[in-house]
Amino acid sequence: MHVLDIGSATGFFSFEFEKRGATVTSVELPTIADWDMPSGKEKTLRELMEVHKAKSVEDLHYLHLDGPFLFCRKMLNSNVNRCYSLDFG
User: Which residue range(s) make up the domain with 19?
Assistant: First the structure.
């Protein structure tokens, strides 16, 4: 069984799929600033940066998405492959 988990964020479902026997590829946006944010991108990014005490959008991306994903992958001894989508904008 192979799973392509698109928009996997911290990878919760990716790790669950793997736990159930799947080979998983996790796809995420290259930056959190590319997320669709209904309440406004600047407002949402500013609020998330405050919550995480992030100094930049790059720091926020790591603290909110990649850091938790990498931590879980290491702790679970996981083989989930993480890749980033391309911007076709």
Answer: 2-84
What six digits make up the tokens of 64?
């909110």
Q: Is the pLDDT of residue 46 over 60?
A: yes
- Compute the C-alpha angle 34/35/41, nearest 5°: 90
Number of domains the chain is built from: 1
Distance separating alpha carbons of residues 77 and 61, to the nearest angstrom: 22
Task: Let me know how long the chain is.
Answer: 89
Please state, as a whole number, how many other Cβ atoms lie within 10 Å of the Cβ of residue 53.
9
Residue 59 within a domain: yes
Q: What is the pTM of this model?
A: 0.86
How many angstroms separate the CA atoms of 89 and 87, rounded?
Answer: 5
Q: Is residue 89 a part of any domain in this protein?
A: no
The span from the CA of 8 to the CA of 21, in Å, is 18
